[in-house]
Write a structure and sequence with these properties.
About 10% of the residues are buried. The chain has one domain. With about 70 residues, it is mainly alpha-helical. The model has no long low-confidence stretch (mean pLDDT about 95). The chain contains two helices and no strands. About 90% of the residues lie in helices and about 0% in strands. It is rod-shaped and about 55 Å long. α1 runs antiparallel to α2.
């Protein structure tokens, strides 16, 4: 079960990295002084990645918890 903990930790770190990438992309778009419509379009493009990153992090944390409880 120790491998489940390591896999979960890697999934969680990948999710966090993707979350940071999403945050950086939105901050970059905000600093570009875009119009409301263009900014909204860029944020809508980042939103599915953001949700995927949150899901990946949650799945990773679930794997870590399962590995700890089963191990």
């Amino acid at each position: 079960m120790q491998s489940l903990v390591y896999i979960g930790a890697l999934l969680t770190l990948a999710g966090i990295a993707l979350l940071l990438w999403c945050i950086a992309g939105v901050m970059k778009a905000r600093k570009a002084q875009l119009s409301d419509e263009e900014l909204r379009a860029r944020i809508q493009k980042v939103l599915p990645l953001n949700l995927a990153a949150l899901g990946l992090s949650a799945l990773g944390l679930g794997c870590v918890i399962a590995g700890v409880l089963l191990g």
